[in-house]
Amino acid sequence: xxxxxxxxxxxxxxxxxxxxxxxxxxxxxxxxxxxxxxxxxxxxxxxxxxxxxxxxxxxxxxxxxxxxxxxxxxxxxxxxxxxxxxxxxxxxxxxxxxxxxxxxxxxxxxxxxxxxxxxxxxxxxxxxxxxxx
Length: 133
Hints:
The protein has one domain: Yope Regulator, Chain: A, CATH 3.30.1460. The protein is built from three helices and six strands. The longest helix has 25 residues, at 107-131. By secondary structure, it is α+β, with helices and mostly antiparallel strands.
């Protein structure tokens, strides 16, 4: 079994230990899609690359982008413990993204990144709703 396969299976088992629902998996591409709505996680994508674990979840689409909205997002990035807000190429879709090096990655680090998203959604929910209007 390749090292990449071992890491993929390790991450998958960690997620199952924490009772995440794996709604999609592609072992060849090393992709998982997970859900745990009680933690604010819905369709989070995890990709195991050669050197990093990439975690992304679409959060919302900005209906009327302004400099003020982008400023608020950048300022909120400072408060996020793990990960950050990122924009897609259109500049309208807001995504939570975090990466971890796989060479010495631990279960608590992966869970901390995922938990960070749950905290973010809880703390910033009303502002995110306003940005979608």
